[in-house]
Amino acid sequence: MSVLEIDNLSGGYSEVNILNGVTVSVGAGEIVTVAGTNGAGKSTLAKAVVGLLPRVEGEIRFEGSVINAVPTEMRANRGIGYVPQVANIFPSLTVQENLEVVVGVTDQRQRIAELFAVFPALASRRRTRAGSMSGGERQQLAYARALMTRPRLIVLDEPTAALSPALVSETFERIRALPSIGASVLLIEQRARQALAISHRGVILDGGRVAMEGPADTLLADERAANLYLGQHG
Amino acid sequence: MAFWIELLISGLVAGLVIGLSALSITLVFGIARFPNAATGDTMTVGAYGALLGHRATNSLLVGGLTGAIAGAIVGFLGYWFIFRKLAQRSNVALLVASIGLAFVLRAILGVSFGHSQQVFQLPLVRPWRIGDVPVHPNDLVLAGACATILAIVFAILHLTPIGRRMRAVADDPALARVSGISPSSVMTVLWLLAGAVSASAGIVAGIKTVVSPEMGWDLLLPAFAAAIVGGIGSPVGAVVAGLLIGVVQEMATPFVGFTYKIALSFLLMLVVLLVRPRGLFGKLEGAR
Ligand SMILES: Nc1ncnc2c1ncn2[C@@H]1O[C@H](COP(=O)(O)OP(=O)(O)OP(=O)(O)O)[C@@H](O)[C@H]1O
Ligand SMILES: [Mg+2]
Which protein residue's CA is at the shortest distance from atom 26 of ligand 1? Predict the structure, then answer.
């Protein structure tokens, strides 16, 4: 069964359509990469999934039910996690408060302890104001915050964009492990080759439309995809 | 010397009034994101509420609670019937709406209670003398009450789940929603709190001076000055700047006279803004 089905989705921030009939699905246990050039509408698609896009037409289904009318905060409660491209932590809250503030976690203490075990760097800085941390630490905190609710779908918007090269492969390894803890992944990435390498399937957006799609290894081998979108050696 | 210490004390009490009203302004600005011009008249509502409660029961505590509850109700009603409906509009639209609400509140108070000045009938107490300095027991009670209110507000903000959520919404409303935080529950608590806090400021001002329908409007400008000097959106900054402005105004009165002391809060605001544009405690990353 598909965790997420985006069906002929159009929409945007005003009357102008940024997305023009996008169809994408994420199956249970799958990682699906969404690639595409700057301004292709990748982040806009992510916002539509979590309910932050002002206007959408078409259908978004999560675990079989249509969620178009479900407000953002309820989608989070239902099990959709989201790490935005920028501004993905609460800078004036401490590390621990960033996790405590997430609503709908019944065993909050235990969950925070679990996540601190996964991200030991955060545990040692639990009383630090999140805004004063480094880019890598912020990124870890952003993940931990999104994982608090044990989401069954996690939407990651360019998780490696702000990271130093050394942290990039570590981050991809972490993402690769997400399905094993029950989270399917919609992975938006500019580093398309590395993203496809850990993905089951891929979709390439261009001008708010799906330009190419298919199994990850097919896309990686595809001449046209390489020439137009992925670069020869990403 | 004693004269100056006396001025300092009355400056601190005046500063608590300014600080509390600035705290209300800065909370609303940080979370609902507009300058609430109805803050002053919510103060007036608090003062009249306390006056009625005090007259009915002869207890300052009951009076104060009545006033604070009246302020909280006004804050909530303003949110529910006006600001909630305009939430998607620009903050200029919200500011204009709050000015409208301010006029309506003042008109209602004027019609209900008349325009003559009223005072709290408190028993006269002989001031204590500490050295040469006369200290009025009422001032201590008021200062203690203000400190308690501040402690409650900061405890709510920093020690409770709803306070954490309020700070999260102040940081980033979209990320707050993504984290499962419902904006309407945060807004409801914000407005109850902001209303009660501005009412408390009005109550203290009313006890120290006189109660009239215009009192809150007159106190609005120093309150905004303090919110800006403290760094808009910073609760600690609002209180510190309020105390600062209160003390500067009182201590300068012998030099500039009573009429011009209000102007000093603006002088202070200009100086702070020139030297430190984000205010004393303004957030570095608040440049959104
Ligand atoms: N908040 C917004 N309001 C209006 N238009 C926006 C907004 N955010 C993005 N856009 C527009 O939507 C289009 C798609 O932007 P989007 O951020 O989805 O692209 P992207 O594929 O994520 O690009 P990037 O790789 O640079 O992150 C762009 O033309 C952009 O200008
Ligand atoms: Mg983007």
Answer: A38
Report if residue B166 sits inside a domain. yes
Task: Identify which of A87, A100, A149 has the shortest CB distance to residue B175.
Answer: A87
Contact call for A87 and B168, based on CB within 8 A: no
Q: What is d(CA B8, CA B11) in angstroms, rounded to the nearest whole number?
A: 5
pLDDT band at B242 (very low <50, low <70, confident <90, very high): very high
Residue B282 domain-assigned (yes or no):
no
Is B58 inside any structural domain? yes
Q: Which domain holds residue B120?
A: 2-275
What ipTM describes this predicted complex?
A: 0.93
Q: Which residues of chain B are within 8 Å of residue A145 when distances are taken between CB atoms?
A: 179
> Residue B235: inside a domain, yes or no?
yes
For chain B, what is the domain count?
1
Q: Global pTM? A: 0.91
Contacting residues for A88 by C-beta, under 8 A, at least 6 apart: A138, A139, A142, A145, B175
User: What CATH number does the domain containing B198 carry?
Assistant: 1.10.3470
Surface-to-core class of residue B173, CB atoms within 10 Å of its CB (0-12 exposed, 13-18 middle, 19+ buried): middle
